[in-house]
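Chapter summary example.
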Amino acid sequence: MSATTKLGFTPDYAIPPGATLEECMHALAMTQQELAERTGLTVQTLNRIFNGEQPITYETANKLEYVTPYPASFWNNLEAQYRGLLAKQAEEQALAENISWLKTIPVKELVKRRVLPETDDKIVLFRAALRFYGVSEVAAWVNVWTEPAAAARRSTFFKSSPGPTSAWLRLGQIEAHRIECAPYDRKKFIENLAAIRALTTRTDDFLPEMRRLCAEAGVALALVPEFPKAPWSGAAEWLSPTKAMILLCLRGKQEDKFWFTFFHEAGHILHDGKKKSFLDNDGKDAYADDPSEKKADDFAAETLIPRRHDPEIAAIRSAADVHRHARQLAISPGIVVGRYHHLTQRWSYFNDLKRKFVWATEDAA
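The structure predicted for these 365 residues follows.
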């Protein structure tokens, strides 16, 4: 068999470069002692190289260039490939040990949304999931997504469903990072929120204009469909010191909830520190004692319909009254109904005046 054939290297197997060197030595009809003398290496060093216990260094490769028919680059490449394959094998072993983590994240939903590949290969799926979350290992995912110092309000609700919640948030972050924004300008954001409020009366697609007004002030508005077992309607987070994210879904689909959630998250951006992030679930009382939540609620309510109008809204008796107040307030009738419901607890009244928002891929409700 020729030396050329023996020196073939198949990268599917982690063959020590020393094994190739040993074959080359035999092909040259050279003893180990002779190879040691010609290279200036000890026999013990060659044994360790043959067994893969000691690498072929750049210095050794240079010596082999003079003693064998092959240049130093050949030996360097063999060594690099070998070490790379060892690292890959170690990685796959570690991945196999952590594969159970896939059971904690919404793999089927992420595959359905074409975020993860449709495959039965758990290792491929695992690697894709790590790339999606932007982490290199499960321990890093735990640090980033279940114990984030910035996410002071991810609460027991987050802890009970970290997989679905983190997936929804991550998709929001990815979308938000793609949105070009001016540097955050608090004054401009307050100014543009007034223009965004006016969009509540529009019956056409207001979202592009809403996104533009947000981006103009340094806020990326992302919309991601909700995940099962992730009870969130909105989130607010700082992606950098000069760029904030507001993330919304259409949980509940009713316009009053959508707009209240948006202005609630805007309140967090305006009034809370840049080292905090917030998750909100349809105004439930999960955070009744949290002053940040009350402040955000008050901001949303006052922005949409100032509290001084509450007595007259609570006194509404007909659909005509709803429309009259909506015209006077320059706001959607559905938002007036939402305030009426909140004030009177008469949840079944005037529901037909509320519009429902649906994703573009859904049939109109």
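To summarize the output: The beta strands are 219-223, 234-240, 243-248, 278-280.
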